[in-house]
Design a protein that fits this description.
The complex is a heterotrimer of chains A (266), B (341) and C (326). By secondary structure, chain A is an all-alpha fold. Chain A has nine helices and no strands. Chain A starts with a helix and ends in a 6-residue tail after the last helix. Chain B is mainly α and 341 residues long. Chain B is globular and about 80 Å long. Chain C folds into two domains: 233 residues, 3-Layer(aba) Sandwich (Rossmann fold), CATH 3.40.50; 75 residues, no CATH class. Chain C has an eight-stranded mixed sheet, with helices on both faces. A four-stranded antiparallel sheet of chain C has the order 2-1-4-5, with helices on one face. In chain C, helix 5 crosses helix 7. The two termini of chain C are 29 Å apart. Classes of the chains: A mainly alpha (266), B mainly alpha (341), C alpha/beta (326). Chains in contact: A-B, B-C. Chains B and C meet through helix 10 and helix 11 of B and helix 2, helix 4 and helix 7 of C. Chain B: This is ABC transporter permease. Chain B: Keywords: Cell membrane, Membrane, Transmembrane, Transmembrane helix, Transport. Chain B: It is a multi-pass membrane protein. Chain B: It is found in: Cell membrane.
Chain lengths: 266, 341, 326
């Protein structure tokens, strides 16, 4: 059931990101001041906001902001993190110790604060939110890959590859990393959920996208103003979809974890 | 207190220094090197002209070499000079010092609630691994992990304040009409109680409920998961089997397991506390809470970079202090730690 | 010779593990065994033969995947398998106690050893915490720990391996049990420490009129230290006899194979022989009735289908379960 539902959710969100604008009933940016702050109805499933924009269409359109942003951050941090981690784990020595120390401190540090600082310094844009998200996820990849490679570098098949005359680059890239690919895959799928949380969190506090670009965190932030006057729907729709998206990625990560590590599956 | 214990404490204190140095380097790089013109960046407030920027350049020593610049920067920080905020007009250090207790109060309140709810659940799940209850807890943790803090906060306000009127207005630490008690600990709830001002106490406590509940929900899933993991490890160990084999009563066996899970649990609380320092930023915004996170956000929006930089350094200092406390507490909970290495 | 009522009686004990991938493994099969008061019995078998599981079954400390499918265990006449959990808690430590293999991990690492012994005393009737602490120090002295009053304040990590095993023995002896089980208690210790620990167990058993059940893979050790030896193979008890008799007049083919695989003084590598094959997979659906069947050189079709016949010597002391004993 878990495998099925997580696959289904993944498919749903992929479809949302690709076909979102095509199926959206309204233009997510179009004002309709006559229809402002309408509660959910058959015409407006999630209601309308203060400018009469259709919240459902905006939520759909936001998937096109959040999902690619999260994916880009994850790709970036996994590429860099795996390379650095593999180099540290394979080479060992002083570099490894220093990187290890920095990673340890970074992992325990309030990472959201680091992300805020980076976006503040680099400039308030979606690209920099992606960069900041990538940076704060780096230590997780480095630590994971470092440990896995270090545990394997003395194993028979690595020794055999070395005796066969393979270079270090070949051994890392073609022998070791393929061996730990499932472990990295689990990390990536868990990471996607965190990246969505982080992107939307930063947007919620006003970093990243600029209005009127629809983005889940910004939509919730927008809607939060109307909660105290009773217009709950402006925030509810995007909140639900955001939670569902993060939940989907977590579930997929969990499923991947079960599939790839049979020992802990029970 | 013997020599080895003193040396343990001293060594732990020394390990904090690299964290502080690292945070200083980080803010130096992020706030002064990354922006195109740090002087323009730091002086980018309204009413700052070219002359101000030139003066600031000289003051910051931007014409000197990088190591000298860093030395100057560190020297200023050491003297408590975090710069001035042009939003409040005060020295940033003073602003932060005034707001820090509010943030800590929120984080501590949230951690307390999360611990009181999450630890028993984690322990109960660890006692019956694989049971329905364990599975339910795990599902709850996965679901909880998917809930962003701001969504929780926003809907708690809607439900508890707007719909049910259970909670007071989500605007700050205490009713604006009430005068705050004399500052002793900086925690309004405790200070008002110390002052015997029950009206202020009730108001402060009432206003803490929703934001700290939001923080708690943030932390609940990791508390539950990590408590369960620490207890499962402890319960599966040989000494638990042998203590059962010796006929020790169940309560004592559980106590053995809890004591042995102590150091991992303390470490966990340190991690979660530092995670909550990040979560504070969001929750303070949602509840208009006058803490350092809200201060940094205001600074960010007004391009008041001294404020942001000060905020990062204060978080780093709190983080270092918490880590030191965690290390010392672990040494107290597990006698092997101080004597190892 | 007066026939004493046995202290421990095990009858037809069968036990199965539910396997993670589904199915069950029959770990113990119809095992029967008696231990007389003050007797030293050795249970000898290869690793995986079920001997440690047997010890845990006696204490009812099996994990969730194990199920006792048949048989009964009685100690001093009391039915263990139907005792309440509360009653079991009283019996453990006070009537039967166990010393595990690994003293390094079997002691609570963050509690002072004196307090751990006091905990056992307090669990078994001692009322005063002060008296418990004093008796704990006495116990430590009794198991040969020098400067016991000071050592009582030590944590396990401050002790050597041999010392830790002494502390384990002190814990097991604390409530004066009737039966002391030593489960590979000396495996992993160095040879001189092994001898020291065995001497200590022996001496304490005699001094306190305790019976001992020594669980080991080491036939030589068993012969040296015990009155009687029972041999277990793949969960079946194949032979039991007084130690001297088992060494000289073994009747089961497996016991004989074990003997030729055991080095002793004067043996050369040439007359040391490994036992052919390996113990059968106890999860297999088609286990032969005698589980030594596949490895045995005396097997016939009978051994496959009919459970091995028990034959006892005239005085009942030597029992062998085999259709074709030597």
């Amino acid at each position: 059931m878990k495998y099925g539902s997580s696959a289904l959710l993944l498919a749903l969100f992929l479809a949302l990101a690709i076909a979102g604008p095509a199926v959206a009933p309204y233009n997510p940016l179009a004002y309709a001041l006559a229809d402002r702050l309408q509660p959910p109805s058959l015409h407006h499933w999630f209601g309308t906001d203060a400018l009469g924009r259709d919240v459902f269409s905006r939520t759909l359109a936001a998937a096109r902001t959040d999902l690619p942003a999260a994916a880009a951050a994850v790709i970036l941090s996994s590429l860099i993190g795996v390379s650095v981690g593999a180099a540290c784990g394979y080479l060992g020595g002083a570099i490894d110790r220093w990187v290890g120390r920095v990673v340890d401190v970074m992992m325990a540090f309030p990472l959201f604060v680091v992300a805020v600082a980076l976006v503040a310094a680099l400039g308030n844009s979606l690209t920099n939110v992606v960069l900041a998200t990538a940076v704060i996820n780096l230590p997780f990849y480095i630590r994971l890959v470092r440990a896995e490679i270090a545990a394997r570098r003395q194993l028979g098949y690595v020794m055999a590859a070395r005796l066969a005359g393979c270079g270090h680059g070949y051994i890392i890239g073609r022998v070791l990393i393929p061996n730990i690919a499932p472990i990295i895959a689990v990390q990536i799928s868990l990471n996607l959920g965190w990246a969505v949380l982080n992107t939307s969190g930063l947007s919620f506090i006003g970093l990243g996208v600029r209005p009127p670009t629809p983005e889940w965190g910004a939509l919730v932030s927008d809607g939060a103003q109307y909660l105290l006057t009773g217009q709950w729907w402006v925030a509810l729709g995007p909140s639900l979809v955001l939670v569902l998206a993060v939940f989907a990625f977590t579930l997929i990560g969990d499923t991947a974890h079960d599939l790839f590590s049979p020992r802990s599956a029970r | 207190m013997n020599a080895s214990l003193i040396s343990f404490v001293l060594r732990r204190v020394l390990t904090v220094l690299p964290v502080l140095v690292g945070a200083t380097v980080f803010t130096f790089v992020v706030m002064r090197l990354l922006p195109a013109d740090p002087a323009a960046f730091l002086a980018s407030g309204p009413g700052m002209g070219a002359a101000d920027i030139a003066a600031l350049r000289a003051k910051l020593g931007l014409d000197r070499s990088l190591p000298v610049q860093f030395g100057l920067y560190a020297w200023q920080l050491l003297h408590g000079d975090f710069g001035h905020s042009f939003v409040t007009g005060n020295p940033v250090a003073l602003d932060l010092l005034q707001r820090l207790p509010a943030s800590l109060e929120l984080a501590c309140g949230g951690l307390l609630i999360a611990a009181v709810i999450g630890m028993p659940l984690g322990i109960a799940a660890a006692l019956r691994p694989g049971s329905l209850f364990d599975t339910a807890c795990r599902a709850l943790a996965v679901l909880g992990g998917a809930l962003p803090g701001f969504v929780i906060g926003v809907f708690l306000i809607y439900l508890c304040y707007f719909k049910l009127s259970w909670a007071p207005e989500p605007t700050g630490q205490i009713d604006a009409a009430l005068s705050a008690p004399r500052i002793v600990t900086g925690f309004l709830v405790i200070d008002s109680l110390l002052a015997g001002n029950m009206t202020a106490f009730a108001s402060a406590l009432g206003r803490m409920v929703l934001p700290s509940l939001t923080m708690a929900l943030f932390a609940l899933a990791p508390v539950m998961r990590m408590t369960r993991a620490a207890m499962v490890t402890a319960l599966a160990s040989d000494y638990i089997r042998s203590s059962r084999a010796l006929g020790l009563p169940n309560r004592l066996v559980l106590r053995y397991a809890l004591e042995n899970a102590g150091a991992p649990l303390i470490t966990m609380f340190g991690l979660i506390f530092s995670y909550m320092l990040g979560a504070n930023v969001v929750v303070e915004k949602v509840f208009a809470w006058p803490g350092i996170g809200a201060y940094a956000l205001d600074g960010l929006q007004a391009a008041d970079y001294s404020a942001v930089q000060g905020f990062i350094l204060v978080v780093a200092a709190v983080f270092a202090a918490v880590n030191l406390l965690v290390d010392l507490l672990c040494g107290w909970a597990d006698p092997r730690i101080p004597r190892a290495a | 010779m007066p026939v004493l009522a046995p202290l421990l009686t095990v009858r037809r004990l069968s036990l199965a593990f539910a396997l993670p991938q589904g199915g069950r493994a029959s770990v113990l099969d119809g095992l029967s065994l008696d231990i007389a008061p003050q007797e030293a019995l050795a249970l000898v078998g290869e690793s995986g033969s079920g001997k440690s599981v047997f010890a845990l079954a006696l204490l009812r400390l099996l994990d969730r995947h194990a199920e006792i499918t048949d048989g009964e265990i009685r100690i001093e006449g009391e039915d263990l398998l139907h005792a309440s959990d509360k009653r079991m808690q009283d019996l453990r430590g006070k009537t039967l106690a166990i010393i595990f293999q690994n003293p390094a991990s079997s002691l609570n690492p963050i509690r002072r050893i004196g307090r751990q012994i006091a905990d056992v005393l307090l669990a078994h009737g001692e009322r005063s915490a002060d008296a418990a602490r004093r008796r704990a120090v006495q116990m430590l002295a009794r198991v040969g720990i020098q400067d016991a009053a000071r050592r009582a304040n030590a944590y396990p990590f401050e002790l050597s391996g041999g010392m830790k095993q002494r502390v384990m023995i002190a814990l097991a002896l604390a409530a004066s049990p009737r039966l002391l089980i030593a489960d590979e208690a000396t495996t992993g210790l160095d040879v001189t420490t092994q001898a020291m620990v065995m001497d200590l167990i022996h001496e304490q058993a005699r001094a306190n009129n305790m019976a001992t059940l020594l669980i080991t893979h080491d036939l030589a050790l068993a012969a040296e230290r015990c009155d009687r030896i029972a041999v277990i193979h793949a969960g079946q008890l194949v032979e039991s006899a007084p130690a001297a008799r088992l060494l000289t007049a073994a009747r089961h083919p497996y016991t004989r194979a074990l003997l030729t695989a055991t080095p002793h003084a004067g043996s050369t590598l040439a007359n040391l022989r490994a036992i052919p094959g390996q113990a059968p997979d106890t999860a297999a659906a088609d286990l032969p009735a005698c589980r030594y069947y596949a490895r045995c050189d005396r097997r016939t079709e009978l051994c496959k289908s009919l459970p091995p016949m028990q034959t006892a010597s005239s005085n009942g002391a030597h029992v062998v379960a085999c259709h074709h004993p030597l």
